[in-house]
Design goal:
By secondary structure, the protein is mainly α. The chain has a domain at 61-201: Butyryl-CoA Dehydrogenase, subunit A, domain 3 (Up-down Bundle), CATH 1.20.140. Helices cover 75% and strands 0% of the residues. The chain is built from seven helices and no strands. The longest helix is centred in the C-terminal third of the chain and has 30 residues, at 172-201. The N and C termini lie far apart (54 Å). The relative contact order is 0.13. Keywords: Signal.
């Protein structure tokens, strides 16, 4: 019995040394990171879009498969999308500036809502930086709750914009393009919230 235990112990040591001498190849690490992203994206409403948005960052997760890092990356991707959408709708508002009717009012309201969404996302990213992966921070619940609240507000802002331009005040191509961009932003924001909730749930900090 003693010899068997000694043999197993030596085998484990040998295996550890072999693994240390032959670390995971970059290709295999990227494959593991890709699988990690895909598995986490399954928890979102838009898993295909989620994978498409986060796949360019596979190399960032090749060394450490971190839920915190994934959530923070999703937040940054969402902010970039919000800023792009913000710029586009602001340009549309400029083109319609001479229009005094309900069309320009709807677009301006949408600009205000997306502007607010950008502010909410910016605050979320800064707040998320205070959160540690292990959840041991005494203020973890406070920071996580703030991020969830601000992300939910940004999601509401996008929904309000879509509702505002869905009526008859805006017609044709302008309406279709704004709606498509804001709908995409809404979906990406939903993904960021779902991934952050998944991270926070590891420490039982998910708002109802």
């Amino acid at each position: 019995m003693g010899k068997t235990i000694t043999f197993l112990a030596l085998s484990l040591v040998t295996l550890t040394l072999v693994q240390a001498q032959h670390p995971i190849s970059p290709r295999r690490a990227r494959s593991r990171a890709r699988a990690f992203i895909e598995s986490q994206c399954e928890a979102t409403l838009y898993s295909t879009l989620c994978v498409r948005c986060l796949s360019p960052y596979v190399s960032s997760f090749s060394k450490t498969l971190s839920h915190r890092q994934l959530a923070q990356t999703a937040l940054k991707v969402t902010l970039a999308k919000a800023e792009t959408t913000q710029g586009y709708i602001a340009q549309v508002a400029q083109r319609l500036n001479r229009n005094k009717g309900p069309e320009i009012r709807s677009v301006r309201e949408c600009v205000d809502q997306i502007n607010d969404g950008v502010d909410q996302l910016t605050k979320s990213i800064k707040e998320a930086q205070h959160i540690k992966e292990d959840g041991e921070s005494s203020e973890f619940t406070w920071h996580a709750s703030n991020v969830q609240t601000w992300l939910s507000t940004a999601l509401t802002d996008a929904s309000m914009c879509i509702d505002g331009i869905s009526g008859r005040t805006i017609r044709g191509k302008t309406k279709a393009l704004i709606k498509a961009r804001v709908l995409n932003l809404q979906q990406v924001t939903s993904i960021a919230l779902a991934l952050f909730n998944r991270f926070a749930a590891r420490f039982k900090v998910v708002k109802p």
